[in-house]
Amino acid sequence: MNFAETVLGSSPGTVAIIERARDGARREWTFADLRAEVDLIAARLCGRGLRPGDVVLTLIGNRPAWAATMLACFRHGFVVLPCNEQLRAKDLQLRLGTVDVAAVVADPRNREALDAAGVDCPVLWIDELEGPAEPAPAASTAAPTQPALMTFTSGTSGPPKCVVHGHRYLWGQEVQARHWMGIRPGDRVWCTAASGWSKSARNSFIAPWLRGATAVMHDGRFDVAERLEIAREESVNVLCMAPTEYRTIVNHGAAAPLADLRTCVAAGEALNPEVLRAWGDTTGTVIRDGYGQTETGQLTAMPVDAPVRPGSMGPPLPGVRAWVDDGELVVDPRTVPTFFLGYHGEESPPEDEWRTGDRVRQDEDGYLYFEGRADDLIISAGYRIGPFEVESVLLEHPAVGDVGVVAAPDPDRGSIVRAVVVLQEGFEPSPELASRLQDHVKAVTAPYKYPRQVDFATSLPRTTSGKLRRNAIR
Predict the structure, then answer these.
(1) For residue 101, what are the CA distances in angstroms to 58, 66, 69, 82, 122?
(2) Domain residues of the chain, as ranges?
(3) Tens digit of pLDDT for each residue in 132-179?
């Protein structure tokens, strides 16, 4: 089967996407409109000589052109590597150096970053795709384990890894769309995650379309008033936001009833009970937590038809076999329809058990509660940040001799990135230097990774073999 062909041909006159552009413009895209865009992009890519299995990198915001590019790749057997627009040249160079990218489809507003990254393959700019094109070849058939999607993780002890998902990942989203998001035919679904994250594609349009719903796409940064205004104007029924977005809205006292909103979901970090209560009291809807990884897709969910248990990420999704071993969540990959094919360039993952690296506890009813990372991954405002990446950037600054990066608790973001820096000779600790180091990280890598707290020390605790003792740093 071919996911793109099935979706595009199911109901041509139905609204597929409600677009809210950055300049305030609004447009409704039917599946017929979307097909025309997909045809155009596919023809351009095929005209550049791309063949099934080739990788296409996208650098586009939450726009219909991004969804159309993804569909064009799914339809013709290309493997799509969506990237977040916050990535800088260094981040893009890592991806381009890891994966053999055959073409890039990008928004012109990202031209500077791509130029700085030294892209040496064809680049298709979405504002230059208009006009007639040669017909694209017929859609290819797609086996469940044929590669379809690549997403980079956040590295902890090394650079981020490239996760490869098969076409089964697309169809497998129906489980979480039904049992976690609770999407019904005719719903309007808004997932606010920025393009490039594993949650964005699957919940921005794949999950809604599998359930016969319309996707709302907003190409803009998070703004409390605007977020609620759009949800109200577009009669959103299902809202998927990062925990920090819910938390910020509540802390600003901005939460208000939304007449059409039926269900809300969150994942990435646990929401504190007071936010859950405040959101529920003011909007009349509850927030249901869930859990998954880039490698696995969604694994657990607070059920649609069960009362919310504050702090719990719910039991495993129907059909998913998961258990707790010595405090760590472990799953059987054979029961996970969205389990990955493997890391790019590495051996296939184990077939019998996948150790998530996350510490959890389980109550007598099988509901799971997240307690923390078994490793040192930092989860801040829903972003997963590898300390190694931030340390590497800071060490490029002439003032930094040594550095350790860890998580620090934060009431709004759950955690923030904290850097403990040992300075080179000739430099003295100061708030001004801390600010310069923060700016350096923002300039070199994605801004969400920068250390919001910078401390200075004369040395860092290390093991006898030279490894950082992060627990001691914390």
Answers:
(1) 10, 17, 15, 12, 9
(2) 3-372, 378-473
(3) 667 778 888 889 999 999 999 866 556 789 999 999 999 999 999 999
Q: Percent of the chain, pLDDT > 70?
A: 97
Is the pLDDT reported for residue 208 higher than 60?
A: yes
**Which of 331, 343, 341, 296 lies closest to 152 in space, CA to CA?**
343
- CATH placement of domain 378-473: 3.30.300.30
CATH 3.40.50.12780 fits 3-372, yes or no: yes
Question: Is 80 exceeded by the pLDDT of residue 181?
Answer: yes
List of residues 6+ apart from 415 with CB closer than 8 A:
269, 378, 379, 380, 407, 408, 409
pLDDT in tens, 187-207: 999 999 999 888 898 999 999
Q: What is the C-alpha to C-alpha distance for residues 419 and 207, in angstroms, rounded to an integer?
A: 38
For tokens 């977020």, the residue is 227
- State the chain's mean pLDDT as an integer: 92
Condensed to tens digits (0 to 9), the pLDDT of residues 268-295 reads: 777 778 888 899 999 999 999 999 999 9
- Say how many C-beta atoms besides its own lie within 10 A of residue 200's C-beta: 22
Q: What is the 3-state secondary structure (H, E, C) of the chain?
A: CCHHHHHHHHCCCCEEEEEECCCCCEEEEEHHHHHHHHHHHHHHHHHCCCCCCCEEEEECCCCHHHHHHHHHHHHHCCEEEECCCCCCHHHHHHHHHHCCEEEEEECHHHHHHHHHHCCCCCEEEHHHCCCCCCCCCCCCCCCCCCEEEEEECCCCCCCCCEEEEECHHHHHHHHHHHHCCCCCCCCEEEECCCCCCHHHHHHHHHHHHHCCCEEEEECCCCCHHHHHHHHHHCCCCEEECCHHHHHHHHHCCCCCCCCCCCEEEEECCCCCHHHHHHHHHHHCCCEEEEEEECCCEEEEECCCCCCCCCCCCECECCCCCEEEECCEEEECHHHCCCCCCEECCCCCCCCCCEEEEEEEEECCCCCEEEEEECCCCEEECCEEECHHHHHHHHCCCCCEEEEEEEEEEECCCEEEEEEEEEECCCCCCCHHHHHHHHHHHHHHCCHHHCCCEEEECCCCCECCCCCECHHHHC
Looking at residue 121, what is its pLDDT?
96
Distance from chain centroid for Cα 181: 16
Which of 165-179, 213-227, 261-275, 348-362 comes out lowest in average pLDDT?
Answer: 261-275
